[in-house]
Amino acid sequence: MHSRTVGYKVVFTDHPLYGFADAGSIHMNKVLQFTLADIDQAICVSHTSKENTILRSGISPQKVFMVPNAVDTAMFTPSPERLSCDEIVIVVISRLVYRKGADLLVEVIPEVCRLFPKVRFIVGGDGPKRVRLEEMREKFSLQDRVEMLGAVPHAQFHLQRPFAKPFWKQQVVDC
Q1: SS3 of 147, please?
Q2: DSSP letter assigned to residue 15
Q3: 40 and 11 in contact (C-beta within 8 Å)?
Q4: At 133, which helix (H) or strand (E)?
Q5: Domains and CATH numbers, the chain
Q6: What is the pTM of this model?
Q7: 110-151 confidence digits (pLDDT tens)
Q8: Integer Cα distance of 59 and 121 in angstroms
Q9: How many CB atoms lie within 10 A of CB 140?
C-alpha cells in the first residue's frame, strides 16, 4: 500500500488457498480487497485462479494475467540411462493433500496398475493423505509397484528419479 508513495510498481502473484463460502474465507477476501486495492497487476497460475482472484479481490480484470506454472527443463531432463522399453514409471512429487489430488491418486493407482502391469508409481511428498496412500498400497498389495519416498526437499527433486520425464499437473480447485 505504501509502494505508490515511494514510486514502486506492485505485482501480486496469487496462489489461492481460500474459497468463498466459509467465514474464514469471507474475512480473508475482505482483507485481500483492502490489501490489493492499489496494486498495478496480478498474476495467477490458471484461468480458474484468475477468475477466482478477480471475484475475491475486486481487482479490475485488465490488471490480472494468467502465467502458468513451468518446469525448468535444464534441471529436469531424462537420464541417458534407459529404462526397460516396456516399463512406464509415473512420478508424483507433491504435498499429499486433497487440494493437490492425493485422493485421486488413491482411486486411480490401483486401477492403472490393474490395467497396465508394466506401470509403477513413485510418490514423493508428505501430508495428511499419505496414510490413505499407504493403506491403498497395502490393500491392493502394490508395495512392489508403488514406492513411497516421503518428503523430498525442493533442491533434491531433480536427483530423485532422473529418468522420469517432466510433466505439469493442475491442482484440484473447489469452485
Answers
A1: strand
A2: -
A3: yes
A4: helix 130-139
A5: 3-66 (no CATH), 71-175 (3.40.50.2000)
A6: 0.60
A7: 999 999 999 989 898 999 999 999 999 999 999 999 999 998
A8: 41
A9: 15
